[in-house]
Write the structure tokens for this entry.
Amino acid sequence: MPRTERHGSSPDGRVRVVDVEIPNDVRYIEKVVELVRRECQVMAYGHRQLMLNVPVALTEALSNAILRGNGDDPAKHVHVHAEVGAERLVLEVGDEGTGFDLDASLIDPTTPENLGREDGRGLFLMRKLMDRVERLEAAHGSVVRMTLHRE
Amino acid sequence: MSFSVKKEGEVVVVDVEGQLIVGNRQELKQKVLDELERGEKKFLIDFSQTGYIDSSGLGVLVSLSKKIREQGGELRLANLNDDLKTLFELTKLDTLFQIADTRERALQSF
């Protein structure tokens, strides 16, 4: 199970909040995705957002944080902060590494020369499935923030 | 999350139950490669019981497709739900794979 887990709502009850810190291990990804997806379901997000946009984009962000940001180091952790509102979902995934340049990492995996590549679709999918993807500077590590407006 | 492998006629059929993501993709890859090493040539991956697939899962499918082709074999995919179809369309992988609506049609297409 995740090391720390906190659920709650904003004082006016319009935003549901999830805070989770997990060990730097890809086996925790599915549990975190389910926690966030459940909150989106409570807030009546659309079927496609529940089954495609949220789980795939969050899995990509977690996978990047664990394998790239934290360099697959088992001593490190990943922090997830989700604010699930009636109008939009804001997801922040923080690692303890130095981060990476979202734009420099961007290739188009749909071109004929890249279609047969095994890698290079993670950031592409995050951008396609979320309305906004940005990298924030953090005191100890790097944070990727993704925003999705509710259908 | 699990993968069940069975033989239907000459075709090795793999059912993906749950997610196909970074945490379990190697398991799928190894199961298919084991069958390929045993001399199997026809493969069908059925997604009727699949939740979601991430970029690592898509990458493993691309890799398996190449390895099977290199051995003179064929890979078909079947039963993508609407969300999975969208994922394949977004990445244009619907143009790389032979995808059938049903398991039966996929089996008949070999």
